[in-house]
Amino acid sequence: MDDSGTHGRIGLGGPRPDAERGRLRPIRRTHIEHVGDTAARLLDTSRGDLRRLREEARRQPRAERKLLKQFKGIGDVGVDIFFRDVQREWTELRPFADRRALAASAQLGLGHDEKAIERMTPGEDFVRLVNALVRVDLDGTADEIRRSAR
After folding, report:
1. 13's torsion region: left (phi>0), alpha (psi -120 to 50) or beta?
2. Would you state the pLDDT for residue 12?
3. C-alpha closest to that of 136 among 112, 102, 113, 111
4. Contact 133, 101 (CB under 8 A)
5. ∠ CA 85-28-1 to the nearest 5 degrees?
6. Which of 31, 43, 62, 107 supports an S-S bond with 142, CB 3.0-4.6 Å?
7. Omega into 61 within 30° of 0, i.e. cis?
8. What is the pTM of this model?
9. Angstrom distance (rounded) from CA 86 to CA 102
10. Phi and psi of 21, rounded to 5°?
């Protein structure tokens, strides 16, 4: 399969120089197979709708996490990323902040748990702040932000 066919249609880029093409093709094929396996499992278990998984878990976060982790390649970090964003709609998850958001929050002096963050920014702003805190942690900019806030 050449890179201008299926790969290009699913956003994996166009043709590559020969040296790079040889190296990346197995990685791309593995990624495509992984995505396909995950999609097939979702279709098999929930008819393609994660809301069915949510109902199967009876809207219990621990059960939702357990069911999501049954998908190949999805572990705690993947579930955390999913929970961070889906808590807008899956209200049983609120307030949710993963270890990265909590680390940045503590470094910035905003609190050490979800409740402290939520008190500052209830509702939709909570999700935006949690995502911003994750970015602070990933970028390592907490010290810079603290200095500029003085």
Report:
1. left
2. 41
3. 102
4. yes
5. 135
6. 107
7. no
8. 0.72
9. 18
10. -60, -45
The answer for residues whose C-beta is within 8 angstroms of residue 21's C-beta and 6 or more apart is 3, 15
The Cα–Cα gap between 111 and 118 comes to 10
DSSP letters along 72-141, please? TT--HHHHHHHHHHHTTT-GGG-S---HHHHHHHHHTTS-SSHHHHHHHS-THHHHHHHHHHHHHHHHT-
Tally the residues of the chain.
Answer: 150
Q: Which residue has the tokens 């878990």?
A: 57
pLDDT score at 7: 39
- Rounded distance, CA 4 to CA 19, Å? 16
